[in-house]
Design brief:
192 residues; 76% helix
């Protein structure tokens, strides 16, 4: 995995993905300078997510989409889009949780824990079921982090029962859609 992360980008799409990662780093600096340190902290959490595609060795198109979704999720918090744009929270939970679940499946496949999608002997239903389950689990963790954030850091974080259940349902739907994609489209840049 480290070799994949350290390999130089090949092709314009791979360079673009690395450019998005650079924007993420610059975004942390911008958030620290022009917004509150807590906002910089939120955006800096996205930096971890931005590196996962490099380690996982996914196709450049998925790498770009994943990184953009991670930055949109983080900056939506900083810019209060979750509160000011109706249903934006559900859209982000659906799309980004689906991408996180697909990425988690790829990482687990690379580690030999789950079957490689589209490999001979892998049933098409396997990624659909496992990506959906991963997405539901990630949705639960995301909601727990929101609760911890509200309880320990910023009481103004919007957390209600309906919001939590809606977010988890949206994440589950996104993960189901992502699982169907993983079962049909190769996300890996090279064979396992």
């Amino acid at each position: 995995m480290i070799d994949r992360c350290l390999a130089p980008p090949r092709g314009i799409a791979a360079w673009t993905a690395d450019g998005v990662r650079l924007l993420g780093l610059l975004g942390v600096v911008a958030a620290f300078v022009w917004w509150a340190p807590g906002d910089a902290g939120i955006v800096s959490l996205a930096l971890v997510a931005l590196m996962i595609p490099r380690f996982a060795g996914v196709r450049a198109g998925f790498d770009i989409a994943f990184c953009v979704a991670a930055l949109v999720a983080a900056w939506s918090n900083v810019l209060d889009a979750y509160e000011s744009v109706a249903v934006w929270d559900l859209v982000v939970h659906c799309i980004f949780t689906g991408m996180l679940a697909a990425m988690a499946y790829v990482v687990l496949a690379r580690a030999g824990i789950v079957p490689v999608p589209l490999a001979e002997g892998t049933r098409p239903a396997t990624p659909v079921v496992l990506v959906t389950v991963l997405g539901l689990a990630l949705s639960a963790v995301w909601e727990m982090l929101e609760w911890v954030g509200r309880t320990l850091i910023a009481p103004d974080i919007f957390v209600t029962y309906q919001d939590t259940i809606g977010d988890m349902a949206a994440g589950g739907i996104g993960a189901l859609i992502a699982g169907c994609i993983v079962a049909r489209v190769s996300l890996l840049s090279d064979p396992v």
